[in-house]
Amino acid sequence: MFPRPRTALAASLVVLAACGDGVATAPDATLVAFTEVTGSVRPDAPLAVELRNGGSDRFGPIRILTGEILDPADLSQVGARLIPDPSIVSTLAPGATARVELRLIGGEALGLETYRSRVTARIDGADVATVDVEVVGQEAPSSPVATLTLTAPESVRRGDVLRLGAAAVDPSGAAVEEPAIRWALDPADGGWIDADGRFVAYREGPIRITARAGSVTDAIEITVTPRGGRMDFTLVGEGLETERFTSDLWVHGGFAWTGSWGVRQNGGTPAFGNQLRTWRLGAGDPVATDALQVDARTTNDVKVSDDGALAVVTHEGSQDGLNGVTILDLADPAHPQVVGRLIGHGLESGVHNAWIDDHWLYLVLDGVGSGLRVFDIADPANPRRVASYWAGESFLHDVLVRDGLAFLSHWNAGLVILDVGNGVAGGRPDAPVEVGRLRDLGGQTHNVWYWPDRGLAFVGEEDFETPGRMHVVDVSDLGDPREIATFAVPTTTPHNFWLDEEAAVLYLGWYAAGVRALDVSGELMGELDRQGRELGSWTRPDAAPACWSGMGTCTWAPQLHEGRLYLADINRGLVVLEPRIR
């Protein structure tokens, strides 16, 4: 974590590059820096920062990124974020200055504290300038409290959310409703407590919680006990695929299907991602029964209908330029038969992901402005386009449909929720209606799992630079989704997820970090990776650490099926694990 900012926050000055007469992107002796910042970002008052080009070349585009909002103990304030406007400076001329306004969202998650965040200017993936800014939470009003009394159990399990009781009375003895309280923890990094007195422990052992209302204080000490619970993984078998890179998977009945990705060199011979493999599942290694080739350079996604009758495989990079999807008949699941190829309707841009819900097919198209297409495939040989949708910015990356709601991972537009038959807004598959959106998840919103029984969405942020993390979003009010928790793994970014809802275990594909198993039982709040909730993880013990080496662990996606966990591994193919909680 970076040092605590001073009253006048000095900008970090970074030497950047000049290359010729165009827009410079390579290192040289040109200076690009934020000017010195005074003042703070407040819930009701944005703060302007300035980025100046002191050199002789033009630069751009420049991405403006904001980091986590941190308290004095370097703990992330989940749900609060600074939003830069603009988020991209298209070009910065020599001697010019760009003004960026920082606006605080989710400020209600902050307490009566002073926080900090870091703003970064980035060109071509390289950080060229940074500045630390001060963030002020809620203002402390004058307090009528004469007596304050805290109540809490003697102990709490690490990672469980505890609601502290705080009884406040004024000098006349009357109760003070919703008193403004400043909370403090000792040790300061022992947990996180929000403005409403909800506490979650990050460390085991004793912790002292102090509440202050005006000049009145009270404190209690509680003991944080171990969370317990571990998961072991046993390698059951592998469907080895080293000729092509493996993309997504789907498991149904006694079979699994895996797509393929990009170009893999095999002794100088390229193998393209134009193949869908079928695997028969059994007690040990999966056995390949079919390898269907299509016109594509990447078959990024494969989905199977709930009844197992149909499958869809997506096309990107087709030689004929048409892309689209191939619809398959699974009457003989060991040997899928082509029903037809769905093209046109803008699908020539490439189809990245798909979802089948009853007789409705939802397709995610490549490119800004392309968005979502919905088709009626009641007659699989003659699909009918019935709807389209785009969020108005960025590109769409993925879609999941459940209970008549479509959850769109819309990259820098964030998480978008559509009514496609739920009834909450009168939407239908052929007439989607937007009911909610959460833009402020740090960008690069990649995938989502929706858990209707808990009103939660687990959202992946695929960012190889920061790196990305998993965001837990409360969607119990579809019109007002709110981020409530995060989970991160150092050094790399997540990919796809699968939730065992009965056991409340979330399996997260995490590229070189393999698969992670996360306990998501109970109320979720704060940084889950600090709470002892990670039950276990699995990576290949004999593999190189580099995901893209062709040898290392590189987990694309997990799927739990009949007690076994199936992984699509980019380098190795289909991996079969047996998870066991102890």
How far is the N terminus from the C terminus? 35 Å
SS elements, strand count: 52
The secondary structure category is: mainly beta
Please give the CATH class of the largest domain: Mainly Beta
Using only C-alpha atoms, the radius of gyration works out to 26 Å
Parts with pLDDT < 50 across at least 5 consecutive residues: 1-24
Outline the biggest β-sheet: 10 strands, mixed
User: What name does CATH use for the topology of the largest domain?
Assistant: Methylamine Dehydrogenase, Chain H
Mean pLDDT: 92
CATH architecture of the largest domain: 7 Propeller
Report the β-strand fraction as a percent range. over 45%
Number of domains: 4
CATH H-level superfamily of the largest domain? YVTN repeat-like/Quinoprotein amine dehydrogenase
SSE order and pairing:
Blueprint: E1 11-16, E2 23-24, E3 30-34, E4 40-41, E5 47-53, E6 58-59, E7 62-66, E8 81-85, E9 88-89, E10 97-105, E11 114-123, E12 126-136, E13 147-151, E14 155-157, E15 161-163, E16 165-169, E17 182-186, E18 191-193, E19 198-201, E20 205-213, E21 216-225, E22 231-240, E23 245-252, E24 255-261, E25 263-266, E26 269-272, E27 275-280, E28 287-293, E29 302-304, E30 310-314, E31 325-329, E32 337-342, E33 351-357, E34 360-365, E35 372-376, E36 384-389, E37 398-402, E38 405-409, E39 415-419, E40 433-438, E41 445-451, E42 456-461, E43 470-474, E44 482-487, E45 497-500, E46 505-509, E47 515-519, E48 526-527, E49 534-538, E50 555-561, E51 564-569, E52 573-581
Parallel strand pairs: 2-6, 4-12, 14-21, 44-48
Antiparallel strand pairs: 1-3, 1-12, 3-5, 5-10, 7-9, 7-11, 8-10, 11-12, 13-16, 15-19, 17-20, 18-19, 20-21, 22-52, 23-24, 24-27, 25-26, 27-28, 29-30, 30-31, 31-32, 33-34, 34-35, 35-36, 37-38, 38-39, 39-40, 41-42, 42-43, 43-44, 45-46, 46-47, 47-49, 50-51, 51-52
